[in-house]
Amino acid sequence: MALLLAVAASAIALSGTLPVLDATALPGLAATTHAVGARDLAADLAGGAAFEARLRSWGFRRGRERDFQGPSKHIDRAVSRTLVFATGGGARAYVAYIGAHAAALYGPGSTSSRLASRGRPGVLVDAAACACHRAAPTLLAVVARGTRVTWLEANGGEVTRAVLVALLARAP
């Protein structure tokens, strides 16, 4: 019975449209939505080709992304992703890798810490700030439950851990 449930859950995860943060979650910001593949995810990190191979070894299946952008006093840009892996172990490996390689995403000085949202364990990455006097904070939360990973990145003048965690609670 457990095997039958696992097969059914896997089939559901591989079919249909993946949910991302609702387009109305950030009023005033334009939202675009598209599929995300292993090559897209690998482009986020230094050493992309090697990371793309790692994603495949973890069983990455597919992803979807909604990108919010626009001028705002609060959040200038946010990216909501839902990623599906073949196994929960693959999803957890992806989250752990992101947490351990914050500098590969955002440069030296970036840090990560543990985070949980709605029972989904993961990491919060605090991107190193540039030396610009008008630099806005960038934070990333990556959490997993089962075979699914939720990624939520936000940048803007009022982006704080509390703001990101509240938005993450609304993300699928």
Domain count: 1
The overall pLDDT, averaged over residues, is 89
Strand order of the largest sheet: 1-2-3-7-6-5-4
- Radius of gyration, Cα only, in angstroms? 16 Å
Give a count of the beta strands, DSSP E runs of length 2 or more. Answer: 7
Order of helices and strands: HEHHEEHHEEEEH
CATH topological fold name: Protein Transport Mog1p, Chain A
Beta-sheet strand percentage?
Answer: 25-35%
**Structure classification:** alpha+beta
> Termini distance?
27 Å
Task: Tell me, briefly, the overall form.
Answer: globular
The DSSP helix count reads 6
- Helix fraction, binned, reads 25-40%
Low-confidence stretches: 1-14
Q: Summarize the biggest pleated sheet.
A: 7 strands, antiparallel
Per CATH, the architecture is 3-Layer(aba) Sandwich
CATH class: Alpha Beta
